[in-house]
Structures are given as structure tokens and as C-alpha cells.
Specification:
Elements: E1 4-8, H1 12-23, E2 27-31, E3 45-46, H2 48-56, H3 60-65, E4 68-70, E5 72-77, E6 82-88, E7 101-103, H4 106-117, E8 123-126, E9 130-137, E10 140-147, E11 150-156, E12 158-161, H5 168-172, E13 177-181, E14 186-191, H6 195-199, E15 204-208, E16 214-219, E17 227-233, H7 240-244, H8 246-256, E18 265-271, E19 274-278, E20 282-283, E21 286-288, E22 294-295, H9 303-322, H10 331-358, H11 362-377, H12 379-389, H13 392-399
Parallel strand pairs: 1-2, 1-12, 2-8, 5-15, 12-21
Antiparallel strand pairs: 3-7, 4-7, 5-6, 9-10, 10-11, 13-19, 14-17, 14-18, 15-16, 16-17, 19-22, 20-21
Helix pairs in contact: 1-4, 1-9, 9-10, 10-13
The structure holds flavin-adenine dinucleotide.
Flavin-adenine dinucleotide binds at residues 8-14, 31-34, 38, 42-45, 106, 130-131, 162-164, 168, 188, 271, 290-291, 298, 301-305, 307.
């Protein structure tokens, strides 16, 4: 009988891991605490390297169809209301079959993945199963879940903990989550108004401003009618209530593009932002993946992308062990590869991206914007910048780590 992998968390990382695992011949059970996939506004930006993985699990056509394809992204000097530089993914056409970004909301990936998962006899999806405890012996893992009918015990050969930033499994295993929390929170505002028409920007935009930077991007929405999402920093001393008030929301949107009519606000949210990496990505037969293993600010759209890379690396490694091509000593390679890639590519880039957008010193700010303009103007540096920002370099580098 094939080995059993229990996956905790039906976020996008857990769902992709489950799909990859059943496709590699494992018996898979996916456990989600809630009764449905979380559809709050979170990740949408999916980079070329990750699109290649979504293609591997057989979801790419639907994923592209349910989202928006963004060939370009732009940096703006918001204080001057002018575009500084535009990057064009087409320059990566010899590096990837997907030389663009796809903006598809993460809950769509979760839902389409679960739908596909249900077509496999060896995959089971259990909503309303909250994992509360984990115990391990030498050759297996026992999970305890709180389910509608009472407590359930689950036996598995391996466990993938994809249970998000507050991971119950990471805490149960006593794995430190090292790093820091930013003093400001991030405000996410979704509007119906079309910023491309208003300001001539593209579908993905990073607006630098010494007082209040903005990330501005378009998503298709569940009705495919199009939405614009803007992410702003709160003031350090501003309360959540103040930041989410009608007046503050209107003021922030007017700061992006001033106009007489009010914006049509569809959704608003505020959340805490961290830069943290788990001290260990594996304990025995339990592996951490996605936000359970690492969290970061969303500037650059890298967190979920990195989580999907974790899922694919992990399942490929477990499958190679099951086929007898590798022995269990490669289990530690998962941590060596994925932890380093997260620190080197995701933590570093997202911290630098934030710093570039919020720089207050006028000379340093001018230099940073000038640097980005010069990178965009030089084809070789333009390509190198995109290889790094789309995590293609990270995939290539990970393969070299033994
Ligand atoms: C505003 C915003 C914008 C973002 N933009 C981007 C972007 O553009 N690109 C990008 O790459 N990343 C982005 N991110 C980050 C991205 O949203 C996360 O990295 C992503 O959600 C991680 O997925 P996950 O599956 O690891 O965890 P989650 O999506 O958090 O899923 C974890 C799941 O586990 C379940 N769960 C928790 N505990 C238990 C338990 N004990 N038992 C069973 N189930 C449990 C939860 O209910 C949840 O469904 C953004 C984040 C935010 C907040």
C-alpha cells in the first residue's frame, strides 16, 4: 500500500502539496480547521517560477483563465506622481515558458486545487478538522483532530504542516519562529475604480513615497469584472479603527490619485506584518511548509510563491525516497534548501523592497529611484533583476544545494 501523507491546512500551499503528492503516488489526506477555503484578500501575484509548478500539477489553464496576465510592472515616484521605471517579463522568454505574472486570488487556487484533488481516489479532503496535537514514533506520526463528531486520531507516514503563520504544529513541536514584527500594520483596500484609466499605470505598481508608499494592483474578482487593490502602511500610532475609518480610507485613496468623486470601496482590512523564519523546517517526519515556515511583508508578492516552492521540493524529495532513488538522509536537504532560499530571496528582497518604497532621506531616495531606472534601462540588468524577483534564480540555486 502506498505511503500516507497527512497535510494540515487547506491554504494554497497545503492544497498544492496534496495535489503534487497524490500525483506522485502517495495516499493523501488534507485537514482544514475551517468549513471552507479562506477567501479574504491576500496573495494574487504568481511569478513565472511558480506558474511552472502550477502547470506541473495540472492547473495552469484554469489558473490563467480565472486571473489576469500582467506582462509589466512599474515603479512610481508617488510624491512626483510620475512613473520611474517599467519592467517587462517578456525579457525572460528564453528562461521560462511563462514570461509574465498571473494575478489570480489565492482562494481561487485553493478551490480549483481541491476540486481536482477530489477526482483522485487516493485523496481525501476533510474540512472542520482542526489538528490539536502531534506525536511521533520512529516510523510514523499520529495527529489528533477536533472534528464535528468529536476527537479523531490520524496515522500518517509523513505530515506536511501547511497550517499558516500561527501554525499549531510548529508551536506543538516547539520550533522557534525567529525574526521581527514591523511596528506599522498594512492596510488593504479593494475598490471598483480603474486606476489604469485614471493614472495610466499597469496591473502591478509599486509607488514610493517618504510618508505613505502604496502597492497598487489589479485582480479579476470572483465575477471577473476587475478590482483594484491598494496596500498602504498604517501610522505607527494610528489605531486599527482610525486606519479603517471612511475618512482615512478616502484620504489614502486620494493620495494615490486625487479626484473629486469618492472611490467605490468594496473591502478594507488591516493586518500585522512580520519577517520570520522557523528555526527548523523539519522535526522527524513532520515538515513545515509555506507560512508555517516563514512569513514576510507582501511587497514583491513573494511569500506564497516561496510556499508553493516548498511544497513542490518537499513532495519531490519524499517521492524520490519512496522510489528508492534517495535515502532518508535527504530529509535534512529540504531544510537546507528551503530555509536558505527563503532568507536569501524572500526575506532580503521584501525588506529591501519596503525600504526602497518608504525611504525618507531625499538623497538616498533619489539614488534608489535612479538605480531602479538605470536597471530597467540596461537589458542585461533588467533580465537579472527579473530572474531574482520572479524567484527563477532561487529555483536554480536551490538545485545546487546538496
Ligand atoms: C494582503 C496580503 C497580500 C499578499 N500578497 C501576496 C502575493 O501577492 N504573493 C505572494 O506570494 N504572497 C502574498 N501574500 C502572502 C500569502 O497570502 C501567504 O504567504 C499565503 O497565504 C500562505 O499560504 P499557506 O497555505 O502557507 O497558509 P494559509 O493561507 O494561512 O493557510 C493555512 C490554512 O491552515 C488552516 N489551519 C490553521 N491551523 C490549523 C489546524 N490546527 N488544523 C487544520 N487547519 C489549520 C487555516 O484555516 C488555513 O486555511 C500576501 C499576504 C497578505 C496578507
Amino acid at each position: 500500500m502506498s505511503k500516507h501523507i497527512a497535510i494540515v491546512g487547506a491554504g494554497p500551499v497545503g492544497v498544492v502539496a496534496a495535489l503534487a503528492a497524490v500525483q506522485q503516488g502517495f495516499r493523501v489526506s488534507l485537514y482544514e480547521a475551517e468549513s471552507r477555503v479562506d477567501d479574504s484578500p491576500r496573495a494574487a501575484t504568481t511569478h513565472s517560477s511558480t506558474l511552472e509548478m502550477i502547470a506541473r500539477v495540472g492547473l495552469i489553464d484554469r489558473f490563467v483563465k480565472e486571473g489576469l496576465t500582467a506582462r509589466y510592472f512599474q515603479f512610481w515616484d508617488q510624491a512626483a506622481q510620475s512613473m520611474v521605471a517599467q519592467f517587462d517579463h517578456e525579457i525572460l522568454k528564453d528562461d521560462t515558458p511563462y514570461p509574465f505574472v498571473v494575478q489570480t486570488e489565492q482562494h481561487k487556487l485553493g478551490n480549483m486545487g481541491i476540486e481536482k484533488l477530489r477526482t483522485y481516489a487516493d485523496a481525501a479532503v476533510h474540512f472542520e478538522h482542526r489538528i490539536t496535537a502531534v506525536a511521533q514514533s520512529g516510523d510514523g506520526v499520529t495527529l489528533t483532530a477536533q472534528a464535528p463528531g468529536g476527537e479523531v486520531r490520524i496515522e500518517a507516514d509523513y505530515v506536511i504542516a501547511a497550517d499558516g503563520g500561527r501554525s499549531a504544529l510548529r508551536k506543538a513541536l516547539d520550533i522557534p519562529f525567529e525574526g521581527m514584527t514591523w511596528p506599522e500594520r498594512f492596510i488593504v483596500i479593494t475598490v471598483k475604480d480603474d486606476f489604469e484609466r485614471l493614472m495610466g499605470c499597469c496591473y502591478r505598481n509599486y509607488l514610493a513615497h517618504p510618508d505613505a508608499w502604496t502597492n497598487l494592483f489589479k485582480i479579476s474578482g470572483d465575477d471577473m469584472q476587475g478590482r483594484w487593490r491598494a496596500v498602504f502602511p498604517s501610522g505607527v500610532d494610528e489605531t486599527d479603527e482610525e486606519a479603517l475609518s471612511d475618512a482615512a480610507v478616502a484620504r489614502r485613496l486620494a493620495h494615490v490619485f486625487p479626484r473629486a468623486e469618492p472611490y467605490e470601496v468594496l473591502h478594507r482590512n488591516i493586518y500585522r506584518v512580520h519577517q520570520r523564519v522557523a528555526a527548523r523546517f523539519r522535526q522527524g517526519r513532520v515538515f513545515l511548509a509555506g507560512d508555517a515556515a516563514h512569513v514576510n511583508n507582501p511587497i514583491g508578492g513573494l511569500g506564497l510563491n516561496c510556499g508553493i516552492h516548498d511544497a513542490m521540493e518537499l513532495v519531490d524529495m519524499l517521492a524520490a525516497v519512496e522510489r528508492g532513488e534517495e535515502d532518508a538522509s535527504v530529509f535534512d536537504r529540504y531544510e537546507r534548501r528551503r530555509r536558505q532560499m527563503n532568507i536569501e530571496f524572500v526575506q532580503q528582497q521584501t525588506v529591501n523592497n519596503k525600504k526602497r518604497l518608504e525611504e525618507k532621506d531625499p538623497a538616498v531616495r533619489a539614488q534608489a529611484l535612479d538605480d531602479i531606472r538605470r536597471i530597467a534601462d540596461d537589458p542585461q540588468r533588467h533580465r537579472q533583476f527579473l530572474l531574482r524577483s520572479s524567484l527563477i534564480d532561487s529555483v536554480r540555486k536551490a538545485r545546487t544545494i546538496a
